[in-house]
Specification:
Elements: E1 2-6, H1 18-32, E2 36-42, H2 50-57, E3 64-68, H3 87-91, E4 97-100, E5 113-118, H4 137-149, E6 153-156, H5 159-168, E7 176-178, H6 194-199, E8 206-210, H7 220-233, E9 238-242, H8 251-256, E10 264-267, H9 272-281, E11 284-287, H10 296-303, E12 308-311, H11 316-320, E13 325-327, H12 332-343, H13 346-360, H14 365-381
């Protein structure tokens, strides 16, 4: 079977979320060599040298490369028929299946059976807060409409996301296939490096948050308030947050107003090895998000030997799999209670670590690739 995967997402310098998914699932699929794979991407006038980036990521793996140099990738949001062309004309290729690994920039005019990965429906669910760089809901809804109209085969990254898709769209349930994300076990495993943590001004006992905490759905305001309850009784505990800190979203002001601001550390993006060291020594990962499509950081934390406190909503119980403490993300008191319980109960901590290591071992990109190939078969027959 000939399969073309839209590889634009893999060209970013600092991958996160959906970029990580695209990078990892493509590599796993190429390694399996079950299908004839091609990678399509856009690089207007070759100004970004995306070909070099993709070649370096997948060096030595068999693949065809389809590059479009006369149009920006963002133009996929427009009706390509207006230009008397379709997606295949621009990349100069056809295939049995074309896989778009996210729900932005879904081509309207395409030759081949279309597969689209839907990670979540956050942009059309304003209760959970839109992304900080502008309201993407119109663009997202525009692309989601294309998915609904074209009898597309959909990959959903969790049962919760599938349920949202079926509830909020007219995509038939039988067209939606759940394929859980994997994690990279070469970079996520228990490994402590206390000296490096000291260099980052991280103490010996700390709770860790990972993610774009300036998104309201990440629940950072309640995390800080829960931490303050715990810090009143524990003079050494620290809160460390890793991710983007955006001034206009008042995170710095929120921390600055805290009575325990000297024990709250905001770190920017960190390397994979630094993230591994931070997770491996944390009292726990705090991940009480209001909404997640899957919840990859929770599984990554488990693989590094960190206990996890996460939410009892959306996809997070699926990601937790009985190996984490589940809390009501709207209850500061519930969150603080479980943080204190974990601090004062080493047996509970050890139990969660062992359960987490076993649970996280199931999430591999090899498994995800194998299940994605089954979706390609279903799309071809659709």
């Amino acid at each position: 079977m000939k399969v073309i995967i839209e590889a634009q997402l893999v060209t970013v310098k600092t991958p996160r979320g959906m970029h990580v998914y695209a990078i990892e699932i493509i590599e796993a699929l190429l390694k399996r060599e079950k299908n004839e794979y091609g990678l399509a991407y856009f690089d207007y006038m070759g100004e970004r040298n995306n070909r070099k980036c993709i070649e370096e990521r997948y060096h030595g793996l068999n693949k065809y490369m389809f590059e479009c140099n006369n149009m920006h990738y963002s133009y996929l949001n427009y009706d390509l028929a207006y230009y008397n062309k379709n997606y295949n004309d621009y990349i100069n290729a056809t295939s049995d299946v074309i896989h778009i690994p996210w729900t932005f920039n879904v081509p309207k005019n395409i030759i081949g059976n279309l597969v689209v990965t839907i990670h979540d429906l956050i942009p059309i669910l304003p209760l959970y807060g839109v992304l900080p760089y502008g309201d993407p809901s119109i663009e997202f809804a525009h692309n989601l409409q294309r998915v609904q109209n074209d009898n597309t085969t959909v990959v959903a990254v969790s049962q919760a996301t599938k349920a949202d898709i079926v509830y909020y769209t007219n995509i038939p349930e039988e067209n939606v296939h759940v394929v859980y994300n994997g994690i990279n076990h070469d970079t996520h495993f228990p490994q402590k490096n206390i000296e490096v943590l000291r260099q980052l001004n991280v103490g010996e006992r700390y709770f860790l948050c990972i993610g774009m905490m300036h998104e309201s759905r990440k629940n950072f305001e309640r995390i800080i308030k829960a931490f303050e309850i715990v810090a009143e009784k524990d003079n050494d505990i620290q809160l460390v947050s890793v991710g983007v800190v955006n001034m206009q979203h008042n995170i710095n002001n929120l921390v600055g107003e805290s009575k325990f601001k000297d024990r709250i550390l905001l770190l920017p993006y960190v390397r994979n090895d630094q993230k591994r060291w931070l997770l491996s020594s944390a009292v726990a990962l705090l991940y009480p998000s209001l909404y997640e499509g899957f919840g990859l950081p929770a599984v990554e934390a488990m693989a590094c030997g960190a206990p996890v406190i996460t939410s009892n909503n959306t996809s997070l119980p699926e990601a937790a799999g009985g190996a984490a403490i589940l809390v009501d993300p709207y209850s500061i008191e519930n969150m603080a209670y479980e943080m204190e319980r974990l601090l004062n109960n080493s047996a509970l901590s050890d139990e969660l670590i062992q359960k987490g290591l076993l649970h996280s071992a199931q999430f591999t990109w090899e498994r995800a690739a194998k299940e994605t190939e089954k979706v390609y078969e279903a799309a071809k027959q659709n």
